[in-house]
Fold Two-component system, sensor histidine kinase YesM.
Amino acid sequence: MQTWERFNVFQKGIRSRFSLFAKINLLIIILFIPILIMYTYSNNVTYDVVSKELQVSNTKQLTFLSSQIDSRINQMMDFSLILSRDPNVRAFNGLNLWQDKYDQMQTRYIIQEKMTLQTGVTDLWPTRYAVYSQQNKEVIANYTRDTGYDEAYLKKNMSGQWTYGDHSTDSKDAMQSFYWFYTDSLAQPGMLTGSNLVIEASFSHENIQNMLDTYKAGGQGDPFFYHKGNTPILNRTADKQLSGDLIRYLDTHSLEDTTQDVVELGGKNYLVSTVKSTYLDWHLVDVVPLYQILEPISLSQNLFYVCMILLLVVGISASILLYRNVQYPIQKLIKGLRRVQQGDYSVRLHSNNQNEFSFLFHRFNDMSHQIQDLIENVFQEKIRAREATLKQLQAQINPHFLYNCLGYIINMAQMKDEQAVVSMAHNLSAYYRYTTRMERETSSLQEEIKLLVNYLDIQKLRNGRIEYHIDIPEHMLAQSVPRLMLQPMVENSVIHGVGKSYTSGEIRITGESVNGFGKIYIDDDGPGLTPEQYEALNQEMLEPLQEEVGCGLWNTYQRMIHTFGNHSYLLFGPSPLGGFRTEIVWEIPSEEADKEPGNDSGG
């Protein structure tokens, strides 16, 4: 039998190997799937991280550029305030009653020199200043003016805010300058009293272009200065087409102080960032081509996918080659194994190649030559061993019961109780008629119950205190159980339960079937055992037979294991009657369980 099992294992291994080669291409594809998923996830994470870092960096750079512009504007405003308080400027706006012409010219020269010095601080941000004396109707500027003092011009531009253009032209398409007018008037802002000093500070749109050009030289964007309704100020190398598309997009959207969006223009993605200027109410706008910056990541991703496809093609090609070289000999081996399984042990396999399969074929031929005799011998040996074990266990129980019965007969004969002797002899005859039928190791539960009735009637003749009750469901009486499975348990209750007490005498035998298991409970009202003794007795059932353990209990347990399997057991514990309980549990075979009514519910 062991050789046959090895043969089955060998056959299953070959089939498993064949199945592995038949599905190797699918396995390669399955192995590639998690790699692709993990790489795609990792690439997406990298893409997102780079995009976010690019957005943060672009916002910081644009904010820094806006702060530079605001800083230079703030310097112009501070200078205008300082200039308005200069003594020479105050003198220029005075009545000039005590100054001669030379002093007046000297004052004008000093004022122009200070404005010129302030203008020449940096070439990147040239500025223009003009000082208006409303009292003297004169103007001094550090740049060439087309007109002189103009009262209407001043009143029109006294808004207190930076404006784009001096409102002297109606064209919004022309590139203009930014202007700011400051007066030292204590009256309502923007109102001239007739003797005010007005400082005009202005700078050209080229200043903004200079800043934009410097910013663009250090980055990858294409910045410009934007205000809805005015001509935007572009850097000098701006992409006019891209800027025009973006301006049309901005005209339809409201801008916050700081805005950042990914905009699709011309089928390509651009990162658009805007920062609002504090003084000018214009927005610095920078557009960065995301598709160019993230192109190396996309290129790396595409290269990885190409490599994965090449590896997949190579793997499938190798699997096909391996399959062709291994498939045929494995198929021959499987056909030979199937013929052996069907009983044809004359099959022989041959191989022209000297490889692992030739050795495997040779061993297969040797196995098929010997396997038939080994299978028959192993089967017969196992059957004989099982029969011998069952008969030996049953033979150990029969003498035990015979000795007790003969003892009862002797006692009754000595007491001249002929009726008890006749009853004992009758029951003993029925018992041996039952036990000597060795052609079957099992009997029905109904026959076992009849044997218990005979036995308990005999015990009742010996001891008038004994009362017994048997309650077994009718659907259980037809079940097959080992012979003499119940009698040793009842005998144990009679001898060790009722026999050791002068007041007890009740024995109760009940049964039920629960969830595919048969259960019989044998209870008495004897003295019982302590919890430690119950635990020790249950443990002894699982160990080899010992002298202090009754052979009837142990043998019954062993026969139940042989008949019903390891799910069957004996369990000893306290009885509801106050004495000793024996619980016999066995697994009902499926063919018998299907015949029982309500076999899917508890008793």
